[in-house]
Write a structure and sequence with these properties.
Blueprint (H helix, E strand, L loop, with lengths): L1 H22 L5 E6 L9 H8 L3 H5 L8 H7 L3 E7 L12 H4 L34 H14 L6 E8 L16 H14 L8 H5 L5 H6 L6 H4 L3 E5 L3 H8 L11 E2 L10 E3 L7 H10 L2 E5 L5 H5 L3 H9 L3 E4 L22 E3 L6
Helix pairs in contact: 12-14
Length: 355
């Protein structure tokens, strides 16, 4: 009888927790996600070739990820995708690194890099292997997984619009992002994922005059309302951020949130990657209602030193999105560094907000 009572009590407690969690707003959770989520390892032969020329630089990009679907299955609630514009197609179809060292494994066997549209990889000509070579394929993978798991927690997708040329003029020069390019990026998301799967700035702004005003009035959707959806964030400043906002005050009609500075009409989600130095600033902004993304590690440094100082600071700061390259133990060098919350998961109630 005692065992039965205990079992029923545990079910009741779990139900209460689920109900309360569903009632939380989107800014009242804390999740762990991956950085450069699409990235495959550089081919070993090419890596050794490049390492001889820049051992320090290559050590910083010596990591890889499992497929996007496998990361989502694991429970990661935030991913990062880098996109390169390729309006004509074929610009990145033949990375120079392939010709520098013979005997590398095959690349783009289906020829998708010849198609017009946004491409997904880390660094042109050297770090070009990706679990989804085109943004279209990434989006279709998100949609397939989401349809199979309609009650999944909301997933944040941080995006970089890559168009910076390398210092070496022999490397492929990327296509620049313009207002037209960003319009195409929005369309790509809606065409391949679907508006019904996306929480947009318009959804959060609601009746308020500006997006920031809505955020300061806690107008984020509840976790229950956000289930089965994705939130895209443009991780860019300067000219690229300005180009995305131009003509869309408070991001009206846009699909992505911008990394907008608090104090501006577009402010809602902000990138602050130094959790140690910025812990108190992050905490203050989170308490006001902003969503903050920070990092547990970067450039493989913390993993090599088994140093979780940044991760601990990130948790204490209340930053809602914590990015890592090490939700799984690395096989690239000897280290026990792995990032998860104390229960082994990647989602929890934000420590700054009590149930």
């Amino acid at each position: 009888m005692k065992l039965l009572f205990g079992f029923l009590l545990s079910i009741l407690i779990s139900a209460v927790v689920i109900i309360k969690t569903d009632d939380l707003k989107l800014n009242q959770i804390q999740v762990i996600g991956s950085h450069n989520s699409y990235k495959q390892a550089i081919d070993a032969k090419l890596f050794r070739f490049l390492q001889k020329r820049d051992s320090v630089g290559m050590s910083k990009i010596d990591y890889e990820h499992i497929s996007l679907t496998d990361q989502l299955k694991l429970g990661l609630n935030a991913l990062e995708i880098d996109v390169y514009a390729d309006s004509r197609g074929g610009k990145y179809a033949h990375p120079k690194g392939l010709s520098w060292v013979p005997g590398q494994k095959p690349y783009d066997t289906k020829g998708v890099m010849n198609e017009p549209g946004f491409k997904v990889f880390h660094i042109q000509d050297i770090d070009y292997r990706s679990n989804c070579l085109t943004f279209k394929l990434c989006l279709q993978e998100f949609k397939a997984w989401s349809e199979a798991h309609p009650e999944h927690n909301p997933v944040f997708i941080t995006m970089n619009a890559k168009d910076e040329p390398m210092k070496n003029p022999d490397f492929t020069v990327p296509e620049k992002f313009t207002a037209k390019t960003f319009a195409a990026l929005d369309k790509e998301i809606l065409d391949n994922l679907g508006k019904q799967y996306v929480i947009t700035p318009d959804d959060v702004r609601g009746k308020y005059k500006t997006l920031q005003t809505a955020v300061l009035h806690n107008n984020w959707p509840t976790l229950k309302a956000a289930k089965g959806k994705f939130i895209f964030v443009l991780d860019e400043k300067g000219e690229k951020r300005s180009a995305y906002i131009a003509g869309h005050p408070s991001l009206k009609g846009r699909v992505l949130f911008a990394d907008a500075e608090p104090g501006t009409p577009e402010a809602a989600i902000h990138i602050m990657n130094d959790a140690i130095k910025e812990e108190h600033q992050i905490q203050a902004l989170v308490k006001k209602g902003f969503i903050i993304r920070t990092r547990a590690d970067s450039d493989t440094e913390e993993a090599r030193n088994n140093d979780k100082t940044s991760f601990e600071a990130a948790q204490q700061s209340g930053a809602q999105i914590i990015s890592t390259d090490y939700y799984k133990k690395t096989t690239h060098f000897k280290s026990d560094y792995v990032i998860s919350f104390s229960d082994g998961g990647y989602f929890k109630v934000n420590p700054l907000f009590k149930l």
